[in-house]
């Protein structure tokens, strides 16, 4: 075994000490350390030894780079460090999770109300009033609503499984370890620090390992760093940053190619990079969702109003002359009457409906409240690979005939192609076709070429697909040019060549084709093909080449040079023995054919989506693990960096002044790499985010992503990502969006939302739906608030002027929880105002779900009209049954007197024990044809409401159960004038809003119809004869 | 100028919450100027006045549509309830302790004032046994029901209505319902839920309610109408004292409902009585 004992050792600096300290500290760390500190610690860059010599490694771990550890010592270490697996964090107990579901804003309100009900019931009971069970029923109903919706929420949360579980799937089961000089296959969890392990293509790396020996070893780091290309792993230390250096392979990444690389384990279990990410992700707390904040604000308003009203009428009742205890009961009843019993259910159902609608549009929402979050989002931190881009290398540009030609990079090949008539193109295509080892997997005839599976590395795949698309039938083409010899790419000569026979059997020359790093290729060329003519490669062409190379490189593309030569027939006759190792053939003086550059191109829909975000006032920030140049190119391509925007560096270059002299505020765009970010203080980062509207972060580590997200988090931040490395940021974000196809399970679990089609454009749909649901929830709440007043005023009138109680508690519950739920929910189906995506995101501090104007409008204007409508109906019904309005006033005590069985009405009739008189109708309505065309769901909601109302009213047997009585059809029409009044009133108001735009009341416009409908409320006395 | 502004700014920081209640510089009270508040109050004044006006108007129109004498709908009172006097469903008294039963006696006495023979003299002596129909008459006459018809329970001969002797009288009356014409021959029958029945005396005899007292035409045009009464004298014996007795009385012999499941007062009444020796 060839072992390089002294790799590039570099400086043995603090990192050694840091690591040791880290290790010691971790040993000393008892669980008492506060979570926050732990989190801060994890946010720091991790220090992993990447540049110690093998001797040092051996010394430290008491191992050998050839023989491995001794089994006994490994056992000791295992006992010390614990097994090499990811420990699940201490999970929150299930009952705590469930309890959390019962302790939201609205829920708390309802708990308080239920307790008040119990107290009121207790007071009534102690006074010997055994007949009044309303309070008890109300309390039970309130608790039932909380518990049922709580179960619903708990179920939602339960479905999103434990985060750490998904990390476990990444861990390899078996590993080949060298101990005592012998190769063994053992379970991966038994590995310890210092173990020598062997990995080969297809294996998962069993821990964080330092590569000791390797041959063409490549690992797929994409889930960890976001780099879409396989990364070479070799013993040399190439970078200080452990994430960038080549001699460290990470736990859970896959080794794609290479035979039997060996490495020494330097970290196991939770101390590995992935382990730290896992604990980071599970350690980051979830932010409170904006909708939860809004609902709490709403609850504050409700509670304030309830107490205000309750207290006012307490004073009034005392003043009128009620006993203190009675006034207290009134106070409680008013407070409880303020609780919108149905709202919790309405909100939950509205959100679920939107979640369902989003799911149909490929956005799966895991946490219900997150549905709205996207609508409030003002910053999207997007990952590049796979989200903005297609996650596949594609040929983007070609340079031949001294022109840069753009290739079609769209996913479905719908773009424009370039001019393919040139003779040079045919030569270039031939080189690209022949000098390519990639092949299609068999049996893929039906699949579109861009989606076919290919055996080969990313750039060869790109070239294969490209040539298949442009030239066609590559396999056949290659067969015609029989391959004689091939020299594969290696990192020293940086080119790849092959020698082929010509397709013309009479032409006995060999064709040598070569591709590789452009500058290396150019070195070997003496001529250049221009329009099919071989011209000498002079200074002028060299310069043209350089310009093209720089241009393409500046686009963030990976450029390859192509050249060929027809080998001299005499020198290399048929049957000549080409030796790939010796290279006993011409490899210089070739003819340069052109450059082909490749990139992972943006998805076709992304620029449009980014544009839409921009018009919607949402800032898109790119945060990627990829290189700054590539990141910037893609950012420019998709519009994250707009045309004409310059970075500080650009300005410096343009003005030919040092970077320091540029006024940072002049630069709209800014590209910050992970290295720069490391040296920035959080204030500087905030500054940068504030000063540059167009930001790109490149080469960022998971910790840095987290820091970036935190810095953005003054406003509401959405984060997209697919890799394991994204999961902490996804968790930290107000809304984490994971990719459904490319996304790792870890990312999916940490996210609140999953894009099934991995398409950034779906986010725009999410934003739209989120904003829509916010607007619609406003309407739902306005509807609920409006309803509150006509439900409350009967009680107030009952207290103050002592009329028989028009609307009983049970009836209110029926209205809230049965008949009115569907109409409230149907508001979730309201169509978007057309300009919903042209508005800025709402300001979480100013644009509240429920504001003063809405409350005032609902309560004191529309609610008042409805109350009058209700009372009109009530008094009408009473009068028509024989109780004139003036008689009603002050009738309460007699009406409720169970001993009074001959109460006289206005006509002298004597009534038996008229116990109840329910104002059932608040929600019962006639569907005026006015709004038939408006919203189909609403119409069905109204039909539903009518049917249910009628069922409650007219179903035989109902009177026995709930004391509901069939009401007269005529009474349904009594409030119609008020309905018309509301309609006219709101039309006038709308006119005013239109004339004076910017009014706060604008959004209520569409409510008219609902108010109209609910005003058609009816009253009906219910008597037990 | 600048300094004052600065001062104002700092002051604003200090007293911003105070300003939200009253801002002395702009004269804003709770975030609005007096003028703004005035306008708002004016708006609500006009708004609520308008609503109240509309309410009054609809009430007025509605009342205009009502008949003075007959309620628009009478479906809620198809059958009369049965009530007792004295006005108590739980009676308990000591027969030898007058203050204990004085309230019942007083109650009965005042109730029977309208039935005083002197008053009833002016009323019509209707032909018994049939409805006293007077649909077309503009002035409805009232059928006479003399207090004396209640005999021992009239309170005339025994001003204590039998309470002092431990054989109390209870008056039963049917609720008035406009246009009610009971078919058959209604009479009151009382039972005691007890093993050995209690003797009872009914006045008028057999507890009959004569049909001539029906129908009732409403309080406006049938002003002095008096309902027919039935008195029940519970002839309690020594062994019935000191026990709580549940007495149920029903209207029998007619189409009037007396067995509604939910309404225990429809055509029947149950009261408890306890006489202490």
From TrEMBL, chain A:
**Any one GO BP annotation for this protein:** intracellular potassium ion homeostasis
The terms describing its cellular component in GO are: plasma membrane
Q: Is Cytoplasm set as a keyword in this record? A: no
> So where does this one cross the membrane?
102-123, 135-155, 298-323, 329-351, 937-957, 969-988, 1000-1019
Q: Which InterPro entries match?
A: ATPase_P-typ_cation-transptr_C, ATPase_P-typ_cation-transptr_N, ATPase_P-typ_cyto_dom_N, ATPase_P-typ_P_site, ATPase_P-typ_TM_dom_sf, ATPase_P-typ_transduc_dom_A_sf, ATPase_P-type_domA, Cation_transp_ATPase_P-type
Which residues belong to any copy of the Cation-transporting P-type ATPase N-terminal domain? 53-122
State a single Pfam family of this protein: Cation_ATPase_C
| CDD domains assigned | P-type_ATPase_Na-K_like
Q: Where in the cell is it found?
A: Cell membrane; Membrane
Extract the signal peptide range.
none
**Which Gene Ontology MF annotations are present?**
ATP binding; ATP hydrolysis activity; metal ion binding; P-type sodium:potassium-exchanging transporter activity
Q: Does the keyword DNA damage apply?
A: no
Sequence similarity: Belongs to the cation transport ATPase (P-type) (TC 3.A.3) family. Type IIC subfamily.
- The protein's name is Sodium/potassium-transporting ATPase subunit alpha
Origin organism of this chain? Scophthalmus maximus
Starting at the broadest rank, the lineage of the source organism is: Eukaryota, Metazoa, Chordata, Craniata, Vertebrata
TrEMBL record, chain B:
> What is the protein name stated in its UniProt record?
Sodium/potassium-transporting ATPase subunit beta
Membrane protein topology class = Single-pass type II membrane protein
Q: Which GO terms describe its cellular component?
A: sodium:potassium-exchanging ATPase complex
Q: What family does this belong to?
A: Belongs to the X(+)/potassium ATPases subunit beta family.
Name its cellular compartments. Answer: Cell membrane; Membrane
Gene3D superfamilies, sorted: Na, k-atpase alpha subunit
Keyword flag Ion transport: yes
* Function per UniProt: This is the non-catalytic component of the active enzyme, which catalyzes the hydrolysis of ATP coupled with the exchange of Na(+) and K(+) ions across the plasma membrane. The exact function of the beta-3 subunit is not known.
Give an example GO biological process: intracellular potassium ion homeostasis
List keywords of the entry alphabetically. Answer: Cell membrane, Disulfide bond, Glycoprotein, Ion transport, Membrane, Potassium, Potassium transport, Signal-anchor, Sodium, Sodium transport, Sodium/potassium transport, Transmembrane, Transmembrane helix, Transport
InterPro entries the UniProt entry points to: Na/K_ATPase_sub_beta (IPR000402), Na/K_ATPase_sub_beta_sf (IPR038702)
